[in-house]
Design a protein that fits this description.
By secondary structure, the protein is α+β, with helices and mostly antiparallel strands. It is built from 3 helices and 8 strands. The chain has an 8-stranded antiparallel β-sheet, with helices on one face.
């Protein structure tokens, strides 16, 4: 995905013993406040590493549905102006996306075709087939929280444009545009979900 690019009502039941999914890290505890975390790194040969985290108060199933609803991403993810599913054979999907970003007075439109496959409700792996990047690949990771009533979502990618763009510009765009994309997906997934109880 260019930016990417993704509700069951809770069942009231007796308290259950904690499981591995109920143990959360300090970082996950911070994410429960609702804000995304985006970290950037300089990799070899001008490649930028992007890692994003967000907590979504919706089941992994609902989050998966949002992440894989490719043709609708353009309707709610900022900066994404085209997003179309080209093919889906049940194992691998191919999508085409166009995004437009602005930095200061400059504006850039990028296009790419991406193939995506995954492990249902756990991982989505993506890689550019053709487009405006020399390097563009990564994954989405979903981790259930509170017996599936919430989901910690992690995004990891490596990107390098196939056009002139200093690395600080690439990082600026990712740092300013990507949190909005994560929040848009959070809002979409939570829109029909009952909030988690405190």
């Amino acid at each position: 995905m260019v930016v990417c690019s993704l509700l069951l009502y809770p069942i009231i039941s007796p308290a259950l013993p904690p499981t591995v999914h109920d143990s959360i890290s300090a970082e996950q505890s911070m994410l429960l406040n609702g804000e995304p975390v985006v970290l950037l790194s300089d990799l070899n040969d001008g490649v930028t590493g992007v890692t994003g985290h967000i907590f979504i108060a919706a089941s992994p199933k609902k989050v998966w549905e949002v992440l894989t609803d490719y043709s609708n991403h353009k309707n709610y993810i900022p900066k994404l102006i085209v997003s179309n599913l080209l093919s889906d054979n049940g194992v691998e999907s191919v999508i085409f996306q166009t995004a437009r970003s602005r930095i200061f007075i400059f504006q850039k439109t990028v296009n790419l075709t991406v193939k995506i496959h995954g492990d249902y409700l756990k991982h989505l792996y993506f890689q550019q087939i053709t487009g405006d990047f020399k390097v563009y690949h990564g994954e989405w990771i979903l981790e259930a929280y509170q017996h599936g009533q919430g989901t910690f979502v992690t995004y990891k990618s490596q990107v390098k444009p196939d056009f002139f763009a200093p690395q600080f510009v690439v990082k600026y765009v990712q740092k300013h545009d990507f949190p909005a994309a994560l929040l848009a997906m959070k809002k979409r997934a939570e829109s029909s979900s009952t909030p988690l109880s405190n």
